[in-house]
Amino acid sequence: MTHEHFDAIVVGAGPSGNAAAYTMAQRGLKVLQIERGEYAGSKNVQGAILYSDALEKIIPDFRDEAPLERHVIEQRIWMMDDAGHTGMHHRSDDYNEDRPNRYTIIRAQFDKWFNRCVREIGVTVLFETTVTSLITDENKRVIGVQTDRDGNGIFADVVVLAEGVNGLVGQRSGLRRELRPEDVALAVKEMHFLPQEVIDARFNLKGEEGVVIEAMGTITDGMVGTAFLYTNRESISVGVGCLVSEFAKSGEATPHGILDRFKNHPSIKALLEGSEIKEYAAHLIPEGGFRAVPELVGDGWIVVGDAGHFVNAVHREGSNLAMTTGRLAGEVVANILGSCMTCTRDNLQTYVRQLEDSFVMKDMKKYKNVPRMLEQGGRHIMDLYPRLLNRSAQTWFRVDGKDKKSKESDILRSARQARGLTGLLGDAFKLARAWR
Amino acid sequence: MQIFVCIKQVPDSGQIRVHPVTNTIMRQGVPTIINPYDLFGLEQALRLRDRFGGEVTVMTMGPPMAVDSLRKALTYGADRAVLLTDRVFAGSDTLATSYALSNLILKAGETWGAPDIVFCGKQTIDGDTAQVGPGIARRLGLSQLTYVSGIDDMDLTDRQILVRRRGDHGVQVLRSQLPVMVTMMEGSNEIRRGTQADALRAARAEVVKWNAATVGIPDVSLCGLRGSPTVVKKVFAPTAREEKAEMVATTDQSPVAMADALINQIFTRQPALQDDLLRQAAGH
Amino acid sequence: MSNQTSRPAGSGRANMKRELPEHFRSYKHVWVFIEFEHGRIHPVSLELLGEGRKLADKLEVELAAVIAGSGHDALEEVAGTTFSYGADLAYIIDNPVLADYRNEPYTRVMTALVEKYQPEIMLLGATVLGRDLAGAVATTLKTGLTADCTELAIDGERSLAATRPTFGGSLLCTIHTLNYRPQMATVRPRVMAMPVAQEGRSGRIVEFTVDLKEEDIITKVLDFLPDTANEAAQLAFADIVVAGGIGLRTSENVQLVRDLANALGGDWGGSRPLVQKGWIPAERQIGQTGKTIRPRLYIAAGISGAIQHRVGVEGADLIVAINTDPQAPIFDFAHVGITADAITLLPALTNAFRQRLSVNRLAG
Ligand SMILES: Cc1cc2nc3c(=O)[nH]c(=O)nc-3n(C[C@H](O)[C@H](O)[C@H](O)COP(=O)(O)OP(=O)(O)OC[C@H]3O[C@@H](n4cnc5c(N)ncnc54)[C@H](O)[C@@H]3O)c2cc1C
Ligand SMILES: Cc1cc2nc3c(=O)[nH]c(=O)nc-3n(C[C@H](O)[C@H](O)[C@H](O)COP(=O)(O)OP(=O)(O)OC[C@H]3O[C@@H](n4cnc5c(N)ncnc54)[C@H](O)[C@@H]3O)c2cc1C
Ligand SMILES: Nc1ncnc2c1ncn2[C@@H]1O[C@H](COP(=O)(O)O)[C@@H](O)[C@H]1O
């Protein structure tokens, strides 16, 4: 029997794998995609934000068909202490535009739809099939994959590793090192079902409008992490994520415990009242930033999406980077094979150069120091400052016969007491530098 | 040998939700699966094919998205898949469903050879009626063998089949004559994991799509809502009992205190039960 | 009803006016098919006689038992039993071919009998036999069949309103067979109460003969291997049942349920997810697709009370629910409830019951 041969094999059917497979098939390549889940999205955490731009570049009229929940017209950023929150709300009718910039989506549905587009454009997709290892030739060039189903290897000119954060295939084949606990966050998430009208009323929404809340503060028990809440059409996604290393350090905190705390926080509880919970899911997010990006190309292989650690934790962007890296990789591979060249490491370097020129690497570099800074000063940012902020706000807003000047100095004093002036200045300096 | 397997795509029951206000089923986003009972028939079909040769054709009547389930059945190793999809079938009850499916089977028989065995699931997890299999058997004049726990023997020359059938009080050993309609008991086997070749073939296979016209349905008025004698008149939430449950509450929240209070409540309500229990205990 | 559940209620044909075609207007009376196998009447048939009696009275028609088998004396004795359980008459079909249940001859007999005597309602048990037969007969008669009903009633237009759980959520639906006769329904064992037998009540016997020859029947019964006394089969008849659900959290905790059942001399079971997880065997599942129970006392620990579970236990005299969630739907139909952790409360209950019962032994 002749071996099965494809131009390209894509491992994984998340946003990055779908983007890569779609792009290559669109350019005439014979593509095989292998996904271990029962269907695309079956292993993915539900409920997320979709950034239109990255998808528009692949499927320009995606809005006609993609399962979108609500477009985001309001963003809230909260600093929480135990009793409340202080924050910023940004809302604008401008977001009720023809081609909105951000949507809430349910990943299981969205990935399934995206993958259907991939199949319709001619990609052969295997489900419930796990790639167990890469097949290499005597020169260590990757020439195919082995799966967990009975049968021979499947061969291809190039293997696109879109396998997500764990990167086990790459790791097992020695293409990358193991994940470090300080580079990944563990996120847990739940879907809370509520009738559409209730969500509209609670969040002051109409039609397809949606709200995003991002929060940090004492709910994470001082660990570095954030919490979020997104409104979907008939459900609310809530979740929290903390660095794996922080859980290890804490020893007793559990992701579920923190999520419970978030849900029971007075600022959140009322928003979820009466909802029916379905689907509890846990997933890793690569948050190590630029410094954690592994080798991206080699002879016969290329890495995209979470497997390449492309996540901007500060702005909570992931899927857009996944789709962009997938698309760029697909284009590069199609160009190489289209001009009858081989996918050597050198030829694939074009991909890396294109990333450098795009927002992908520029953003990754901009925030490259954030993870380290959080590792060092995390406790203050996650615990102390939210408390200070909320206490200050109370001091400021309470009318109690005290003159405003004393109030101001109260606020300053409590801040200084809590962290010390140098500490405060240091944190500010570090934060500023990390963001630069 | 030609074996046909009827499968149905059903919503995964664990993930169904009901709209708390309108009381309608929220189907959006609920994953679908192959009716689990149908897989026992499919696996049995594949085993017979592996042993006696021939082909396994999976078929379903359903919406276009049912193609996913058919493709999955191909991944398990079925040779061919057919989807019967048409607006006229919408709202079919079991009688109308068996009418559509038996015509589908006739057409498939003309195309690839008449079936020796038609497998159906014992029942579906959504309709849960166990009526469609018998309906098909009656319409096509197949011997009806439901609740089969094992196929002991088959002889293609004298066209005999020997099965064990689960009855209410024991197991019947039956001999019948092909063609037959069989529904397999749960637990009679376990669906295989298709090979890589099966998976590749399935991913690339063309699922045959037919509609009422291609199948040549003789009388469209027997299909769908029109052809269904049963009518769902209302769907409603069960009413709570007149008096809600009497909640037992104790100030002392220890299990011991709660247990005591609960038992008192039980015996207050059911003094006769208490007497009987005590008598029983004393009798020991 | 396989696809029917997708229909929105109250739309389309649901509001259709009933217009019974002329040739069905002569269909009258309520029938119950009596399962008589290996010398035993299945209890569900007697339960259905109780229910059929109510329907017949409401319609002011007769209730008939349909008894098929081989051996005239035995069948007459069965007829006698059905009279004492409410039947006005019994159709007896005696033929050696009917000795063991087989679909083909039974379907033929039932089809012919219906065509001759034209009942408006026909009820069968939702047993292996009943389901096998009902599906075939409904198809030969081209009429409607509603499976696994939990409630039967006659509406204002003399039509059978058959209620059953509908798929998925906690909902029920009521199904009618408007323009066809007979209206057929199956009901699971123990869903309807067992009527009290009235000794000495009598009725008419109508013999029905069909031309059945063994040579014409394709399927042969070679052997029958009776079940050995299956203790789980007793679950349906136990006086006290304790059951656990997902709230038990681990398979080990199933033991807590067993312990309490033991202390009370009762039987035990669980909700469907426990079967799916492999924590308990399938025969121990309680509910729509498991056993229906009618104990004097039912204790449900860590069970939410989904409709499919509810319909299996509603016949209990006293339902006691233990659940950590005060909003759990089970409290909507339990008689006594307690908001508590089943994992700690069950052992305490077991102990407390043991103590109370043993104190009495000392005293007695
Ligand atoms: C809780 C949470 C919330 C998030 N919210 C957002 C958000 O709001 N917006 C946003 O843009 N990003 C968000 N992200 C990040 C985003 O989900 C990821 O960046 C994105 O999914 C990465 O896509 P990917 O295709 O690289 O990987 P994945 O989506 O992880 O896909 C990888 C796929 O590969 C498959 N696979 C893995 N190994 C194998 C193998 N050996 N063989 C076959 N298949 C394999 C997996 O089953 C999986 O389907 C969030 C992440 C989490 C965890
Ligand atoms: C066609 C069909 C047929 C079905 N047939 C059946 C059937 O025959 N029988 C059946 O049971 N189900 C059946 N089901 C499934 C049914 O719909 C429910 O999913 C099932 O009954 C739920 O089981 P549960 O109550 O154990 O679990 P859950 O619904 O998960 O409920 C667990 C409960 O335990 C409580 N709890 C959690 N921890 C504790 C604790 N420590 N102490 C006390 N309480 C706790 C929770 O508050 C919750 O109420 C069927 C479903 C379908 C679609
Ligand atoms: N729409 C359908 N398409 C194919 N097979 C079906 C369909 N509906 C029911 N069946 C078959 O009939 C069996 C019994 O279904 P039910 O009578 O709905 O419980 C199922 O397990 C399937 O094998």
From TrEMBL, chain A:
Keyword Cytoplasm among UniProt keywords: no
Keyword Oxidoreductase: yes
MF annotations from Gene Ontology: FAD binding; oxidoreductase activity
Keywords, alphabetical: FAD, Flavoprotein, Oxidoreductase
Superkingdom, natural source: Bacteria
Cofactor(s) required for function per UniProt: FAD
Domain spans labelled FixC-like C-terminal: 371-436
Family membership noted in the UniProt record: Belongs to the ETF-QO/FixC family.
Function: Could be required for the formation of a functional nitrogenase Fe protein. Probably accepts electrons from FixA/FixB and reduces a quinone.
UniProt xrefs under PANTHER family: ELECTRON TRANSFER FLAVOPROTEIN-QUINONE OXIDOREDUCTASE YDIS-RELATED (PTHR43624)
Protein name per Swiss-Prot or TrEMBL: Protein FixC
Species for this entry: Komagataeibacter melaceti
Automatic annotation (TrEMBL), chain B:
SMART domains: ETF
Keywords from the named record: Electron transport, Transport
PANTHER family: ELECTRON TRANSFER FLAVOPROTEIN BETA-SUBUNIT, PROTEIN FIXA
Transmembrane parts of this sequence: none
SUPFAM superfamilies named in the record: Adenine nucleotide alpha hydrolases-like
Stated name of the protein: Electron transfer flavoprotein subunit beta/FixA family protein
Domain Electron transfer flavoprotein alpha/beta-subunit N-terminal as annotated: residue spans: 22-219
Top-level taxon: Bacteria
GO MF annotation, one: electron transfer activity
Classification via InterPro entries: ETF_a/b_N, ETF_b, ETF_beta_N, Rossmann-like_a/b/a_fold
Automatic annotation (TrEMBL), chain C:
Transmembrane segments: none
Alphabetic keyword roster: Electron transport, FAD, Flavoprotein, Transport
UniProt domain Electron transfer flavoprotein alpha/beta-subunit N-terminal: residue ranges: 30-221
MF-aspect GO terms: electron transfer activity; flavin adenine dinucleotide binding
Domain of life: Bacteria
Short name of one Pfam family: ETF_alpha
InterPro entries the UniProt entry points to: DHS-like_NAD/FAD-binding_dom (IPR029035), ETF_a/b_N (IPR014730), ETF_a/FixB (IPR001308), ETF_alpha_N (IPR033947), ETF_asu_C (IPR014731), ETF_asu_C_CS (IPR018206), Rossmann-like_a/b/a_fold (IPR014729)
One BP annotation, GO: fatty acid beta-oxidation using acyl-CoA dehydrogenase
Chain residues that bind FAD: 271-272, 285-289, 302-309, 323
Keyword Flavoprotein: yes
Obligatory cofactor(s): FAD
SUPFAM superfamilies recorded: Adenine nucleotide alpha hydrolases-like (SSF52402), DHS-like NAD/FAD-binding domain (SSF52467)
Cofactor stoichiometry and binding remark: Binds 1 FAD per dimer.
Protein family membership: Belongs to the ETF alpha-subunit/FixB family.
PANTHER family in the record: ELECTRON TRANSFER FLAVOPROTEIN ALPHA, ELECTRON TRANSFER FLAVOPROTEIN SUBUNIT ALPHA, MITOCHONDRIAL
Protein name in UniProt: Electron transfer flavoprotein subunit alpha/FixB family protein
Organism listed in the record: Komagataeibacter melaceti
